Amino acid sequence: MRNIKHAFWGPLLLSSLLWLAAEPTAFQPAGFFALRDTMVQYSGIVAMTAMSVAMILALRPRWPERWLGGLDKMYRLHKWLGIAALVVSLVHWLWSQGPKWAVGWGWLARPARGARPLLINPIQQAFANLRGTAEAIGEWAFYASVLLIALALIRHFPYRLFYKTHRLLAVTYLVLAFHAVVLTDFDYWTAPVGMVMALLLASGSYAAVVVLLHRVGVSRQVEGLIASLEYYPGVRVLEAEIDVPHGWPGHRPGQFAFATSDAREGPHPYTIASAWHENDRRITFIAKELGDHTSRLREKLRVGQKVKVEGPYGCFDFDDDQPHQIWIGGGIGITPFIARMKSIAQERRTHPDEPPRAVDLFHTTTDVDETALAKLKADAEAAHIRLHILVDSRDGYLTGDRIRAAVPEWPAASIWFCGPSGFGEALREDFAAAGLPVTKRFHQELFAMRS
User: Fold this and answer.
1) In which element (H, E) is residue 186 found?
2) How large is the C-alpha radius of gyration of the chain?
3) What is the pLDDT of residues 106-131, one digit of tens each?
4) Which of 200, 201, 218, 312 could cross-link to 251 by cystine, CB 3.0-4.6 Å?
5) Closest listed residue to residue 334, CA positions, set 369, 303, 298
6) Residue 427 near residue 364 (C-beta atoms within 8 A)
7) CB 212 within 8 A of CB 170
8) Model pTM score
9) Which residues contact 348 (CB under 8 A, 6 or more apart)?
10) Smallest Cα–Cα separation from 250: which of 216, 270, 280?
11) How far is the C-alpha of 418 from the C-alpha of 316, rounded, in Å?
């Protein structure tokens, strides 16, 4: 989480400092309207910085994934930047429109304007001629962005509509990029702040075009074929095995991939629930009916159907040096642990003499399906994992105290959690209070994607 915070505040702080270097007298304005012009420029630069970085992250780039801790963390950063862009854009709009309202209401006197300076630079002249257009379409793009970001933040907004409307933010970004280029103080473009903004706007515009052309992640997509489907009614979970005969580079346990079964609804992320065998090129996904998209999969998918699979992504890979690991899978969060158990069982068959690492797996669930639980127990036995199953209605809720009582070796263990984010944060705080160095040894998957 620390790196996410650095990646969030870093660009905003950098753009602020560079702007301040270009406007050293920013806090000594010659009157209210001079302050208003300065604040419009500053808020616009910060808003476009946040929007540009968010747009770049929409491409799902590989290069920052390891540093940020996985694509789930990158999506969290993308969301934070979108909210920041919304808030700062609102401030920008209020600084732009508020004084005009105040003049109309008689609260402020309209400033006296002298003759406009003669513009010699032809590019500056062209920008001056476009000011009215940039202001008008920028305002409407701002209104559209507010609506689209608000819809993206509504958890119960249907996934198929979210996929279509969220892509429209790429259109509003391109309009706002034009707005920014034309209306940013022309002198900024020869200063460091302008150079950085030019790079961000160019990169963000490229990303927006890629999004609009449906080319995100296309180089990491392979064609797959659904080999089998099994439904577990007790937990409302669908298990799909997909053959990927060509192109799939393999994956590590704990990683996930995007699968597209309907081009109209776009790709959806699923944690991979299988180990990788080069001689048996098959991926297993497990999807729980949690929303409009996943609730309709059982009706829409069929054996033999073609799907696109993109990935793999993620850094939830169980890689550490601790002698003991504690795994916690809440509900459908058990999926990465299934993949890891299958991988360990595969390794044990290849190297039967290697001593296994001590692992305790806690699976807490509200729903129960005996067939699914039997498979889970078989996987744990094959991997020599100590399994603790807690059904909420029967056993009560899982707490830090219960984990520590069941695993006396916890002070020397690392914890790997996948499940509801609130549950994970509560356990993290509990173990931090108990003395575990959670920044180094508490690993949490942060995906909270629409389902």
Assistant:
1) none
2) 26
3) 888 887 776 677 778 888 888 888 99
4) 312
5) 369
6) no
7) yes
8) 0.89
9) 354, 356, 382, 383, 384
10) 280
11) 9
Whether 189 and 198 have beta carbons less than 8 Å apart is answered as yes
- Average pLDDT of the residues in 325-338: 94
Alpha carbon of 340 to those of 14, 227, 239, 440: distances in Å? Answer: 41, 22, 17, 20
Q: Strand 413-418 relative to strand 324-330: parallel, antiparallel, unpaired? A: parallel
What gap in Å lies between CA 33 and CA 426, rounded to an integer? 48
Tell me which residue has tokens 């540009």. 52
At 347 the pLDDT is: 87
How many Å apart are CA 317 and CA 152, to the nearest integer? 29
| N-terminal to C-terminal alpha carbon distance within the chain | 24
Q: What token pair was written down for 267? A: 């790709």
CA distances from 270 to 64, 256, 257, 304 (A): 21, 6, 6, 19
Distance between CA atoms of residues 125 and 433, nearest Å: 62
263 band by pLDDT with thresholds 50, 70 and 90 = confident
pLDDT at position 448: 62
What 3-state class would DSSP assign to 280? Answer: strand
Distance CA 347, CA 441 (A): 24
Segment 87-102, tens digit of pLDDT: 999 999 999 999 889 8
CA 404 and chain centroid, separation: 32
Which pair of tokens denotes residue 245?
Answer: 């005969």
CA distances from 389 to 222, 330, 375, 415 (A): 36, 10, 13, 17
Please name the amino acid found at residue 72: D
What is the Cα–Cα distance from 310 to 256, expressed in whole angstroms? 9
8 A C-beta contact, residue 295 and residue 289: yes
Query: Across the chain, what does the average pLDDT equal?
Result: 91
| Residue 259 and residue 223 in contact, taking contact as beta carbons nearer than 8 Å | no
pLDDT at 249 over 70: yes
Which residue's entry shows tokens 């630069």?
45
65-70-75 Cα angle (round to 5): 95
Both tokens of 218, joined, read 């296309």
Enumerate residues 6+ apart whose C-beta is below 8 A from 199.
none
Give residue 155's pLDDT band: very low, low, confident or very high (50, 70, 90). confident
Cβ-proximal residues to 34 (8 Å cutoff; 6+ apart), any chain: none
**Could you tell me the two tokens for 260?**
């597209």
Helix and strand numbers, DSSP H then E, in the chain: 16, 11
pLDDT at site 350: 81
Q: What is the pLDDT of residues 212-231, one digit of tens each?
A: 999 999 999 999 999 999 99
Confidence of residue 277 (pLDDT cuts 50, 70, 90): confident
